Amino acid sequence: MSYTTQLDGVTGQMAEEIRSFDWGKTCLGPMSSWPLSLLTTLRLVLTTRQPMCFWWGEDLLQFHNDSYLPILGGRETNALGQPFRQYWSDVWDGVEPFVKRAQAGEGTWIENLPLQIHRNGAPTESYWTFSYSPLYDDNAQIAGLLNVVTETTASVIDRRALEKAYLDAQRHLDEREQHEEELKLLNRELAHRMKNTLAMVQSIISQSLRNAPSISEAATTIGARIQTLAKAQDVLTGMSVTAAEITAIAKTAVAPHVDGDDRITITGPQVYLSAQQALGLSLAIHELATNATKYGALSRPEGRVVMTWDKQPENGFTFDWRESGGPPVTEPARRGFGSRLTERVVSDLFQGQAAIRFNPEGVTFSLVGKLHNADDLEH
């Protein structure tokens, strides 16, 4: 049977190119000498609409059908009859294992294999699902391999984009859920803080009225204390829902009493206080500064105040207020609400001990306690 009979009725671009190709210059020789197995395989490939190619002979020369042409991507004019390894040098390292297995008589199949293929003058990312199957000559010897192929680049990229869109959507949902939880936490914290603040205001008013010699003096004292609370709240609101850095609290509380750069020294490491501790310590500092201005170190130009604090292991915390250069100090016969606030309230809030001492050289206040979840409050 001649090759013309074997390809009789086969039409298409590649059929014509194969007929007109000078095969005599290749290892296969002229078509008139081709084995029936090669011609049969060629007819099968040319008459299918599935993209297919195969390689035959010692040099594995390429044949392909019309459906395979788009895969060649701008280099289809010189693909026919080219040695596999030479023509597909850009992807050879990726497909060589499959070639060797097919040449050993084993069919192969791979899905979405990534390959950097040279297309339209540039390396291009691509993905392929294909099989390599051994082809046999008339003597039942492996003479080539058949490639049934589908390019899956578009579907892989689309799936990747879909997965990214899904992950983005999931991330947005998670963020929304997190924001809703944070909002709930914020509302709970604000409600809790409001209750604490109202309770503190109620105590301030009640105690101030009880111990004041006159309504006007009580009004002045109450106004000053509530203003201190408001400023502390401003610091808390400006920094965090649940915490405030102690330096800002201390500076805000003594600000009305500072009449010189060196009158009040404030030193200590960065420490975050819970909202309750910040409000309580702010009131305590306000009381100490008010008394120092009226009767203590800040009542004289040469008087000085040193305020220090430190953070200890396991959330430990110390705070000290020391006055010097003021008039001689004597312990008052009666402790007012301010002193009780400074000692008792602060002791409870910091779960420790606080004490005011009326030393002759100057009033001191010392606190030893614990921070509320200090590690969680640091920002």
From TrEMBL:
Domain Signal transduction histidine kinase HWE region per the UniProt entry, residue ranges: 189-270
Coiled coil, from the record: 162-196
UniProt keyword annotations, A-Z: ATP-binding, Coiled coil, Kinase, Nucleotide-binding, Phosphoprotein, Transferase
One Gene Ontology molecular-function label: ATP binding
UniProt EC number: 2.7.13.3
EC main group: transferase
Pfam families according to UniProt: HWE_HK (PF07536), PAS_4 (PF08448)
Superkingdom assignment: Bacteria
Catalytic reaction list: ATP + protein L-histidine = ADP + protein N-phospho-L-histidine
Entries under PANTHER family matching the protein: HISTIDINE KINASE, TWO-COMPONENT SYSTEM SENSOR PROTEIN
Protein name: histidine kinase
